[in-house]
Amino acid sequence: MKFTYCPDCGCRLAGRELGDEGIVPWCDNCGKPWFDMFPVAVISLVYNERGEVLLLRQNYISTEFHNLVSGYIVPGEDAETTAVREIFEETGQVVDELRLIQTNWFAKKDMMMIGFFARVKSRPLRLSSEVDEAGWFAPDEILSKVSQRQGSTSRILCERFLAENQSARAL
Known about the structure:
single chain; Nucleoside Triphosphate Pyrophosphohydrolase; 2 domains; six-stranded mixed β-sheet
């Protein structure tokens, strides 16, 4: 969201140079800057004790590819809490271990994605109404199921998971 008017007082914002930031929207009345805002979501590659990866079909996101568990951070939550909540809400799985992997700018939706690996002990899937289908897949199947688009956060997390697990098997 790009601000044109001050959210506090309603005055029209003017550009003002602010240190290393360059020209930023500035409220002369309140004497403060208003930086662009954007949504932040988490995305989690969920895997079980057998090394299988949980992939979802959510037709409102894609009818062509499977996705990883994802969701928006709500006010008052940190990214880790959101990841654990979304995994449980969408699949009924309880996270045993959560590890931050990377952040990724999702240009198509102008949003920040925070990527995790989440280990669970496989339980029966309990899908939310947001999820059309879900299933556990062997690692060698996952790249063919997720988006092929370069820079896709799902694909990046899957490639990283495969690289880490291949390294572990080689030891």
